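Hi all, posting the design record for the shared folder.

TITLE: backbone redesign
STEP: 1 of 1
STRUCTURE INPUT:
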């Protein structure tokens, strides 16, 4: 019965090591297809990975619970970092949406301001052309234009004064 339990544990451990070595063999086969500098660089990396893998396997075999505890601790750290990153990303997204709303409002205000400036410029141009027409047409027309402009000016002044009173 004891042998059966060990066999199950050894089988899982054996599968892990088999997977590691199978991956290493596949990587080595791929390296053979690469150029010489890549092969030498990969050989150095493979040696380092081999040493780390053997050390990890030794730790796992000597103290399986300690190994599991280290894995759980590191996964908790990774999880908390991921949660913090998620919160930060959400805050950034919220600020981006807020900025989008503000820029839409700013664009609307700018368009309104452009329309107002165009209206003022159009009014000024028409008044200037009426004034230029009045000056070039002679003295008889000038007095009638002048009197109509005077009434327009005085009504404009009255409306400005009325709006200031409120």
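Okay, here is what came back for every position:
SEQUENCE:
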């Amino acid at each position: 019965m004891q042998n059966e339990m060990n066999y199950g544990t050894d089988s899982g451990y054996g599968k892990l090591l088999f997977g590691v070595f199978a991956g290493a063999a596949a990587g080595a086969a791929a390296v053979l297809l690469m150029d010489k500098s890549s092969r030498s660089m990969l050989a150095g990396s493979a040696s380092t990975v081999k040493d780390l893998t053997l050390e990890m396997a030794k730790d796992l075999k000597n103290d399986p619970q300690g190994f599991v505890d280290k894995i759980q601790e590191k996964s908790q750290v990774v999880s908390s970092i991921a949660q913090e990153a998620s919160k930060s990303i959400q805050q950034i997204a919220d600020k981006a949406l807020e900025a989008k709303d503000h820029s839409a409002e700013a664009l609307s205000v700018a368009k309104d301001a452009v329309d107002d400036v165009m209206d003022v410029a159009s009014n000024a141009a028409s008044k200037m052309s009426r004034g230029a027409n009045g000056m070039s047409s002679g003295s008889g027309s000038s007095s009638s234009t002048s009197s109509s402009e005077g009434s327009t000016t005085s009504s404009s002044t009255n409306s400005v004064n009325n709006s200031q009173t409120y």
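COMMENT: Confidence is low (pLDDT under 50) at residues 1-9, 139-166.
Let me know if anyone wants the other runs.
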